[in-house]
DNA sequence: AAGATTTGACCATT
DNA sequence: AATGGTCAAATCTT
């Protein structure tokens, strides 16, 4: 029924747990192609305690399944409005939805330096697996960045989804995480390749018009073998 | 029959 | 002992 919007990948649920403090259980998913293609990407979905239509989604690992043709994430299209969310912390960056997409698609993102977009764009589907080769693609540094993008989706039957995409993007240098928002990644230490968490709001209250659905993505990278 | 979900047991950490 | 994450058998869906 409702879950966070589709992120374009296909996942297989392998567990669910009640988490202390949370009113809803957390679902554990791993890439459908784990065995067939050895893809180790996983994600966790947790419905937010307070905002009922918010979901925190945490991605871990990158997809190495070049096969999965990822469908376009969620709804389609285009849209136009964006809403800045209240939230906020980060600086908003206007253009870059693509980024998001990429993010979502999991193909990494990170840019090295600090800043910006341009580079981000490069990360494209072309290369795929980071697994082995550390560096290159992914940034050698582990910085993690977070972005948020709002998205709307109506549920019920008709789904019109309008969505906006404004995103915020923030990067921080090695190690520190500062996303205030909502989640925390607990320790990042060992070997997590990459974690991305996103909170997506899904359906909203049908009637009320506003929700600002927002989706937030955060992710953390660990040094593949790297440094930092 | 094959693939996906559900769900409690089981394991690792703290 | 309490938590969070994963496994796997039973079950449901294609
Ligand atoms: Zn995958």
From TrEMBL:
It is found in: Nucleus. PROSITE patterns: WRKY (PS50811). One of its GO terms (biological process) is response to ozone. One of its GO terms (molecular function) is DNA-binding transcription factor activity. Residues 1-63 form the WRKY domain. Its main location: nucleus. SUPFAM superfamilies: WRKY DNA-binding domain. PANTHER family: WRKY TRANSCRIPTION FACTOR 30-RELATED-RELATED, WRKY TRANSCRIPTION FACTOR 41-RELATED. This is Putative WRKY transcription factor 53. It comes from Dendrobium catenatum.
